[in-house]
Every structure is written in C-alpha cells, then in structure tokens.
Amino acid sequence: MTEVLASAVGRGSQQEILRSLFERSGLCMARLDSGFRLVEVNAEFSEQFGCRPAELGGRSFGDLLHADAQTLVSRQFSRLLDDQEARFTEPMIAFRQKDSTVFSGELTGFTVCAHGGEGLMALLCPETGSRQDPSPTPHRLVLTDIEARILEGVAVGMSTVNLASTLYLSRGGIGYHVDTLMRKLKVKNRPAAVAKAYAIGLISPGWPPRVDTD
After folding, report:
1. How many whole angstroms from its chain centre is CA 140?
2. In what helix (H) or strand (E) does residue 38 lie, and over which residues does it extend?
3. In what order do the strands lie in the sheet containing 38-41?
4. Cα–Cα distance between 180 and 62 in angstroms, integer?
5. Cα-flanking dihedrals φ and ψ of residue 85, to 5°?
6. Cα separations (Å) of 147 from 18, 174, 184?
7. How far apart are CA 116 and CA 86, in angstroms?
8. How far, CA to CA in Å, does 185 sit from each of 21, 48, 143, 153, 176?
9. Phi, psi for residue 146 in degrees, rounded to 5
C-alpha cells in the first residue's frame, strides 16, 4: 500500500512538502547546514527570537542557545550527522532572544532529505502555552493501519480525492480520519501534522515517508 501512495506523486514533491511545512505548519522550524548554521527559518521561528528571518540567516544555531545548553545540543546534532540516530528531543533547553531574554522550550532535531542530500531540521516548541497540557505526549500515540496509510499519503502531498481513490474510502471518510489524526497530534492543519509526525518519530526519515511500525 505504501508503494501505491508513493507512486501517486513525483519524488520532487518532497521539496514542496518541506516548503509547505515551513510556510503553513505554524510551528517554529529552522533548517541547518552541516556546520549547524541557520540556512533558513520560518516566520514563527524568527518571531520567537524577536528577529526578522534575514537576521538569523548564516548564524550559528549555538548563538541562540544559553551557554549551558550549547555543548549538549551540538553533540546531539553531531550524532544526527554521524547517523548514530535519526532524531533527538531535549524537553528543556534554554534559548536567548535578541534582547538577551532567556526562555525555555522543547527542541527536536531530525534529518531530512533535501537538495539531493541529508539536511538537519530543528523544531522548537516554546514552554509557554505548549507544555501545559498534561495529556500523554504524541510519541506514545497508537495509529490504526488506515490512519498510518493516510498519514503517509498526506506526507507526500496527496489530496483528499486521491487518498479516497487510493484507499477505497469516501471523501468524508478521509476527512474523518484526517481530523482524528490532527486531534491525536494536537495540531490544526495537515502540514503541522506531518511536521509533528516527523519530529516525534511517527514517520521514519527518508523518502517516500513511511510510518514507523514500532
């Protein structure tokens, strides 16, 4: 079934999906190079640090961290580059805003296939308003088989109509399962669902996107 989903769109769609996550997910996201420099940040990320996106381009990611967190985060990103792990999550990292104000947040780093090679992504969830929900964390979610297939389809950019045709469901059925996925992941739109799924390990790194059966 995964192969059928993957064949529905071209391989070039991965770049479109990545762009959609940056522009529409509503999450604080940044793309890094192998030297941990900021290649690209979205508006939510730059606003969190009181900057314009252009002000952050080319800066070291470590410049945004409190001194106590720099070594730990650098080590974690190095492990990603060395393929020792596909992602990491640090639940409490101290960051510094433009005016030197310090705030805490959850930092997730993971690898993506971008521009013909492997790149680094950083997902930041500021503590205020994002860690007050006492319900179980998303990485403990259990998806049904149909939810997993739909998530894979959404990750490659399939429309509701294409998903319905491929999975032999009605459009309303697809909409119901997509809404269920978004509630489980605690997000408001499809790009955010894909970004969250990548960040917490529901989707394994690589292309085409595959839901981790573990």
Report:
1. 16
2. strand 38-41
3. 38-41, 28-32, 117-126, 102-114, 87-96
4. 37
5. -160, 160
6. 21, 9, 11
7. 18
8. 15, 22, 11, 16, 14
9. -70, -35
Cα-flanking dihedrals φ and ψ of residue 84, to 5°?
-80, -20
Q: Determine the pLDDT at residue 137.
A: 41
Residues (pLDDT < 50) of the chain are: 1-12, 129-139
The string of DSSP codes covering 76-132 is: HHHHHHTTS-SEEEEEEEEEE-TTS-EEEEEEEEEEEEETTEEEEEEEEEESTTTS-
Q: What is the DSSP letter of 134?
A: -
Partners of residue 112 on adjacent β-strands = 119
Reference 127, options 96, 109, 145, 103; nearest CA is 103
CB 203 within 8 A of CB 211: yes
β-bridge mates for residue 28, sequence order: 124
Give the chain's count of helices (H) and strands (E). Answer: 9, 7
pLDDT in tens, 104-146: 889 999 887 655 566 788 999 887 543 333 333 444 577 888 9
Q: What is the pTM of this model?
A: 0.58
